[in-house]
């Protein structure tokens, strides 16, 4: 009876813990202060270790900043690092299990046993205490399952391929990022170049519109002529406003890509207006071979096919019997034991008989996954080859469009010079001045756009071929070193043309 209060207390504690586990928690929405604090912390994290822009920003430095500071690229790099960490962890699945255990046992009375006579079924009068009321048990056991070893081996190989897939996704994101930076940079350059000219032409057009409306009110001209004049001025104003709206977001897009402070003006260094026409000198066969060996999507398809094959092997291993080896060291403080410390070894063979029924279906499922992965790889290979031809043709078209836009701009520039001479002798009207300035601005804008499209087409062709800049680890390079590496590495087409020449001479 002395143990009854102890038992009641233990039951009360168990009941209290059970009720606590069933307790309901109310949803806790984030407060405005918590959101504000987290937003400030996130902004500080985004700007951490980002060098401020000093002086003018070149195209190579913009791409270097994007590679080093772009937030989406950082996320891709973290994904790749996470995949490699998962691979490192998966390798430990092949190790044996080493289990250390310790326990305490207590009861409120003695463990007493009796024996029964096998012949007449009578109980013996003797009673035996066979265990201490309180004792501790500890053990250290090593077990190794051969089935788990095989499954873990193929799982680790799959995880290694998944880590390589993450690397290919990072490469693809890098190609798209550099392509977007080129486009945004040239749009920002055109905005910087044309901003003052657009504003001057807009002011001139608004002045001409005001003068025309005043002349109409004073009936100094034919009303029809005045309205036609105003319509032409308004049409030019609409074009100027459309140009200004198109260029107004260029700096913000570039700042987002290179992780620069939003709203802060960026002075850009305008690169020379020239095209690298050596890309079209590379034979198409060389481009196809390069893409088949380096395209990020195609390499990812190869890795996925390999993962599917490893899944087939892993499925086959699961169908084998499970063989488990174990060895343990045990110790018990029970005083009734003659041997309180003992070593124990064992081997166990087990087999799930239902595998005889489900095995063929599991193998067919795994083989279907392999067939699907192979078909996707074949489809991706043909798509990549088509993309190479399309990207090459788009580059040729873009370069042709730039040549045409450059010729048109040259003519408009010469026309503008003649109109400036006429303006000096006050021969032309304000409408002519507005129209000529609008035409010149629109022609220059199209020239910038054509060059940006040509640059984008060249970057798209490089991305399709899977040509990477040889920059090594971005985190190990400073911004200046990365910029110099990108500047010195603009020899992609020369190398491919040289390799093609060497291959043709052999």
Automatic annotation (TrEMBL):
Q: Does the keyword Transmembrane apply?
A: yes
| Gene3D superfamilies per UniProt | Outer membrane efflux proteins (OEP)
- According to the record, the signal peptide region is 1-23
Tell where it localizes: Cell outer membrane
**Recorded superkingdom:** Bacteria
Q: For this UniProt entry, what's an example GO CC term?
A: cell outer membrane
Q: Which GO terms describe its molecular function?
A: efflux transmembrane transporter activity; porin activity
Q: Which UniProt keywords apply?
A: Cell outer membrane, Membrane, Signal, Transmembrane, Transmembrane beta strand
Q: Does the keyword Nucleotide-binding apply?
A: no
The biased composition feature labelled Basic and acidic residues covers 39-50
Task: Enumerate the residue ranges of region (Disordered).
Answer: 32-52, 106-128
Q: State what protein this is by name.
A: TolC family protein
What's the source species for this entry? Stutzerimonas zhaodongensis
């Amino acid at each position: 009876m002395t143990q009854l209060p102890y038992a009641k207390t233990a039951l009360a504690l168990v009941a209290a813990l059970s009720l606590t586990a069933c307790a309901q928690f109310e949803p806790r929405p984030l407060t405005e202060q918590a959101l504000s604090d987290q937003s400030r912390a996130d902004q500080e994290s985004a700007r951490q270790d980002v060098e401020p822009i000093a002086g003018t920003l070149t195209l190579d430095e913009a791409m270097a900043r994007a590679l080093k500071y772009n937030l989406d690229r950082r996320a891709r790099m973290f994904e790749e690092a996470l995949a490699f960490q998962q691979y490192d962890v998966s390798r430990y699945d092949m190790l044996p299990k080493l289990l250390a255990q310790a326990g305490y046992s207590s009861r409120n009375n003695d463990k007493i046993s009796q024996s029964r006579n096998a012949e007449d079924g009578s109980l013996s009068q003797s009673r035996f205490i066979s265990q201490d009321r309180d004792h501790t048990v500890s053990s250290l056991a090593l077990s190794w399952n051969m089935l788990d070893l095989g499954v873990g081996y193929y799982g680790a190989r799959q995880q290694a391929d998944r880590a390589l897939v993450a690397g290919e996704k990072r490469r693809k994101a890098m190609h798209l990022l550099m392509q977007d930076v080129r486009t945004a940079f040239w749009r920002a350059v055109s905005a910087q170049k044309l901003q003052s000219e657009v504003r001057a032409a807009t002011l001139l057009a608004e002045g001409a519109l005001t003068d025309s409306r005043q002349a109409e009110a004073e009936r100094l001209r034919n009303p029809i002529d005045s309205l036609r004049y105003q319509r032409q001025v308004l049409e030019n104003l609409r074009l100027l406003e459309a140009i200004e709206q198109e260029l107004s977001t260029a700096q913000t897009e570039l700042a987002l890509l290179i992780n620069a402070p939003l709203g802060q003006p960026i002075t850009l260094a305008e690169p020379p207006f020239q095209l690298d026409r050596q890309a079209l000198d590379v034979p198409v066969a060389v481009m196809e071979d390069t893409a088949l060996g380096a395209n990020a999507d195609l390499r990812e398809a190869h890795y996925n096919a390999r993962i599917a094959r490893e899944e087939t092997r892993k499925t086959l291993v699961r169908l084998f019997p499970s063989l488990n080896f174990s060895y343990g060291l045990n110790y018990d403080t029970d005083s009734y034991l003659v041997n309180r410390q003992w070593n124990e070894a064992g081997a166990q063979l087990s087999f799930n008989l239902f595998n005889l029924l489900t095995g063929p279906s599991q193998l067919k499922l795994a083989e279907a996954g392999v067939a699907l992965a192979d078909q996707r790889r074949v489809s991706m290979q043909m798509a990549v080859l088509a993309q190479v031809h399309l990207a090459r043709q788009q580059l040729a078209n873009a370069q042709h469009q730039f040549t045409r836009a450059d010729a048109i701009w040259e003519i408009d520039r010469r026309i503008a010079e003649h109109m400036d001479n006429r303006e000096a002798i006050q021969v032309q009207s304000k409408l002519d001045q507005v129209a000529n300035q609008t035409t010149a601005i629109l022609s220059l804008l199209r020239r910038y756009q054509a060059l940006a499209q040509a640059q984008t087409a060249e970057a798209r062709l490089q991305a399709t071929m899977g040509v990477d800049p040889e920059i090594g680890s971005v985190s190990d390079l400073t911004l200046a070193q990365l910029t110099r590496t990108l500047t010195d590495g603009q020899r992609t087409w020369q190398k491919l043309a040289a390799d093609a020449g060497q291959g043709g001479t052999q």
